[in-house]
Amino acid sequence: MTTARALVVDDIHMSYGDFKAVDGVSFEVAEGEFFGILGPNGAGKTTTMEIAEGLREPDSGSIELLGESPFPRNLALLPRMGVQLQASAFFEKLTAREQLETFGSLYGVRSARIDEMLELVGLADKAGTQEAKLSGGQRQRLSIACALVHDPDIVFLDEPTAALDPQSRRNLWDVLRAIQDRGKTIVYTTHYLDEAEVLCDRVAIMDHGRILALDTPARLVRDLDAATHVILEPTSMPVTEARALPGADNVAVDETSLTIATRRPAPLLAALAERGTLDGLQVRTATLEDVFLQLTGREYRA
């Protein structure tokens, strides 16, 4: 059985003068999928999203959104898509409920739907609070509620957890999971690699306007074939003894830890267990962040 496609991006290009913001990007997103677009600053993520949403016309290439072209502005698609931009603007002095009622009125949304959305994003107890008095995390959740109030089939979220504290980020993860559980398709960008690894069914890693890798987070990590790092207390054993352990490929020690890199963790851990040196031991395997850094480099991006 073939899964229906919510979004098809085919060889899109977009330049601003001599700068190629998007340079031959292609991907598909299945209905109900949580799809992430990752990349450093200036990679082309937001431009790609804006083209997919129909906000920009690409120089070349094509977009198929829910079976139709989103550009020029397709009025038939507007009720079926929700968009949350990087910077959200709300109406001054309106409460959370009034903000949602205003957005919902554009689509003929009933008041029961407003209550449902406030409950979904955890703002039912803040319904009468003015937007300016909400915390950063609460405003982000309100912004997502505004994008969902008309019950769209596909939702575009551009860095929805940016600048949030860890607790607010985790709370928002629950909201995003609840959205997908309702059968919605989610396309989003983020700088948080741990977040993408947890939430996304598949991710595309972009840089310099191109997609460098596209797969499930687990497969991208597995294909990296990176070493496992076993971290011990620095005084747990001499460096010479650590280097002689079965499976030890490289050993590094500093004031806080002794780290053994290995591609055969099982015999190494067994040997450490025999020596009774498992107390305080940490095992670090490769993550999506390792894949990201290998593909895009470690240099600072302004």
TrEMBL record:
Mode of membrane association: Peripheral membrane protein
GO cellular component terms given for this protein: plasma membrane
Keywords, alphabetical: Antibiotic resistance, ATP-binding, Cell membrane, Membrane, Nucleotide-binding, Translocase, Transport
GO biological process: response to antibiotic
InterPro entries: AAA+_ATPase, ABC_transporter-like_ATP-bd, ABC_transporter-like_CS, ABC_transporter_ATP-binding, P-loop_NTPase
Domain ABC transporter per the UniProt entry, residue ranges: 7-233
SUPFAM superfamilies tied to this protein: P-loop containing nucleoside triphosphate hydrolases
Coiled-coil ranges (or none): none
A Pfam family: ABC_tran
Annotated compartments: Cell membrane
Recorded GO MF terms: ATP binding; ATP hydrolysis activity
Family: Belongs to the ABC transporter superfamily.
Name of protein: ABC transporter ATP-binding protein
